[in-house]
Target: CBD9-like protein
Amino acid sequence: MMGWYLLLSVAFCYLGIVPSALAQIINYTPSAGGGVSYGINIPSSTFQLGSGPIFFQLQAPADLKWAALGLGNQMTDGQLFVIYSASDTNVTLSPRRANTHVAPTYDPTIRAFLLEGSGVYNGLLTANVRCDNCTTLGNGKNILSNRSSWVWAVAHGPQLVSSNVSETIYQHDWHGIFTFDLKKAVGGDSSNPFFHSSPPFARLTLNPEQQQISDTLLHKKRIAHGVMTSVAFVLLFPNFGLLLHIIPTRYTVAWIHAPLQMFAVLLALAGFMFGVSVSKDLQDLAGYHPILGYLSIGGVVIIQPILGIIQHVKFRRSREKTLYGVSHRWLGRFLCAFGIVNGGIGFHYAQAKNPDIPLASPIVYAIICALVGAIYVLWLAVARYGVAA
Model:
C-alpha cells in the first residue's frame, strides 16, 4: 500500500497536481555548491492562509565552514539561515538578517527551530527547520507564489565548530539565486516532513531558474573593471588628446591620435563589459553607478568617433575648423571628466557592496586624477601661451 501511495504522489507531482492529501518536498542542489542541497515544504494550511509555519532542510558536507539559505533574491531581502557544526554530532542553526552587504547578524525575532533528524551524520550537516514567521519578506512581499526567489551561499575551509548562534562568519566563496514555484511544494500538515512523516512525502527535484556566482571570480572581475576603465579615462583619453598639441603635424590626427584613442576606447569598452558582468552577478544593472557608466561609455564609443571622423573629413576639404571639431573636443573633455567622476563614485558603490575593498583605493585614485588633471590644464595653458606669443 505504501508503494502505491508513493507512486501516486510522484505521478501527481509530474502532472502538476498538488492535492493536500499528497504532500511533497521540492529539492534544489546547486551544481557549484560543493554538495549542498535544500528542500522546502509548505503545509496546506499555511498556503491557504498565506501565513504560518514552513519547513525547509539544509544539507551540506561537514567540512564546510558554513552553508546558508535565505529568502528573497538578495541577502538583504529577508531571513537568512546559516548552519555550521556545533560538535561532531550536532549542528548549529543561526537565523540572521543583513541590512547591508556585510556579514549578517543573529536575529532572535526570527522564530526558527531545529527539528528531529538534525545533526551531523556520515560527514553531512543536516538541519531540518521549521520557521513560523518566514512567509513575508522585508518589503512585505509574500513568498508563497509560483515565482519565489531564494538565495544560497557556502564558505569552504576549516570547519567552523561552535554552538554560538552569533558566531562571526567569514565571507562566502560561492553564492547563488534560484526561483521556485512554491505551489509545487504545497501539501500535508506534518510537524516534521523531513523525518518519519506519515503519510510519506514525495520528493521532487527541480531545475529552477538559477544564477551561481564564484566570489573569487567576481573579485577578479571587479579588479579588471576598475583597472581598465580607470586607465582609459584617467590616463589614456586625456593624454592621447594632448598629443595634438605635443606633436602638431598634419599626420598626428590620422596616424597617432585616432589609433591611440581607439585603443583607449576598446580598453574602456572591455572594462565596461566586466562591469556589466559584475552588475549582473549583483543583480544591480539599474544602479546609479552602472547607469552613469552606460552614458559615459556610450559617448566615447559611439558619439566621439563619429564627431571625430566627420571633423577630419571636413577639415581635409576646407582646412578650417568646424562645429563638429569643437563639439568633438569639448564633448571629449566632458566625457573624460564624467567618467573620472563616475570612477570615484564607483569606489563608494563597490564599498557599499563589498566592505573588504581597501579604504586607501579611492584616495590613491583621487590623487592620480588630480595630478593628471593638473598636468592636462597646465599643458594646455602653456600651449596656448606659446601660440599667443
